[in-house]
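Spend some time on the protein that follows and explain the fold to me:
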Amino acid sequence: MKNKLSYLLIFLLSISVCENLFSQNNTSKLSTLTAQSFIKRFPDPDSIHWIGNKNHFSWQAGYIMFAMEKMWQSTGDSLYYNYIKKYVDQQVDELGNIADFESNALDNFLPGYAILFMYEKTHLEKYKKTAMKIRIAFNTYPRNKNGLFWHGTWAKHQTWVDGLFMGQIFLARYGKVIGDSEYSYNEVVKQITLVAEKCQQENGLLVHGWDESKEASWASKTNGLASEVWSEGLGWYAVLLADVFDYLPLEHPGYSKVFAIHQKLCKGLKSVQDRKTGMWCQVVDKPDEPGNWNETSGTGMFIYLLNKSIEKGFISADEYSQVISSAYSGIIKKARTNDKGFIDLYDCSSIGIQNNYKAYISQPKEISTFAAFGSFIIGTSEVEFKKSKHIVIKEKETPTKVFELLKNGNFADADTSWVLDHSKGAEGLMEFVKEGLEGKFALRLKVINISDAPWRLQIYQKGMRIEKGKSYSFTFWVKSDRIGDINVNCMQNHEPWAHPTQQTIPVSTEWKKLQFDFVGAWSDDNVRVTFTNLGNIPGQVYWFADCSLMETNLNSNNE
């Protein structure tokens, strides 16, 4: 077996490892390493969008530019400025037109924040014209009867707390930079306070959304509210509250209301922090509930809110510094280098509103989502560059070495490491094809016949050693030609064929990188990892790519 050496980043990556990959400026900081790794990975910012998404003018790129601006403000490194400028100039022509802007969802307003940044720095008229066109789109954007914006035209009557950041952070900056401040500030205050009136609970946290019509599957038939507080969703709202005071004048009549919401949220976050890891969980206010797990993107956002609030004097350093220190220590354990030398982020979740607690915690743990990169960068940079004497972080931590346990995880070799298993008439065709990401190799399975149970058709690799009590992470890219579920497990490759770690994974028609974490149930030299329950529909096609199995340092269910 050819072992591929990878490193789990704790705080510092050795400069000798990174000298050919990263800029030499500020290489002692994980936020810098992550931001520079991202730019190296996505040198063309127009590629920052979900696979299959043709619209480049949406929140994914907008949020990354938001994070890169924070890095530029902290470091003065032109790398970040030039990256933002490159993206903005790809969207805006010399006449101030933006061909890709669609005002049918709040998500699509966020890139306007980067355009305002470029106008601030250059005063070029084309940027101002573009920003004004985005601002005007709010005039006809759909609302509920109480004035709250819909999340999108496809989400009629629904307000999501994450959507508020996308639109209101643009308006807040617009009021200060361009003008029309009376409308802009009033609208920002209106949206922040109205959603708090609906969604903020007694503990200070906000549930994921509210449906005025009460018709959404997730909406309470009594009050229209979602049932749970989702990490990344609340995180967007937290970042909005962290930054809105950079723009909202102290004398604005709504300032005190927004500040009161801010105070309740900070207090609420402190009360539900995971005591074991310092992070916050997928369902934020239930850290001790079975199945809940630490979510990286939301944690980065909450760190950003709390640390910036200390810097502004809004909350007590004595009360919140340990909260931030613990959270920082937890989140940096989610960063690892992959076999290409880029930084990956683990335990991420970018989803819509779910029906209940079980649905939230059952969502796959994604890897390296765009939201997670933005959140990780703003959270770690806020601590590393604006560190007060009260914040304790580890300056010198030895990277932990981890080893690849799979053979041919990228499917580039036509060997027999991967086995197609079928029984009782189930049949499939397994091929290694160049249909993966960026034209690279993938394993393609076409279902020919099905049997009495979907598990009769499965793909596995055997012969790995797993040790009892140790933690492992199986990561992979997957898509299908139709939406459905499959199962993933680590099981014995011999009687009694035990598989106590099985997990159901939703599969979509777009490539997604997913993560399956488990703890070894036994010490065994002959176990296998399996994609199973593949025999559901004759003719269905699955693609798998870039599979990896590594031991990790995870030591609790929440981690």
Observations:
- The two ends are 29 Å apart (CA to CA).
- The chain is about 35% helix and 20% strand.
- The longest strand covers residues 541-552.
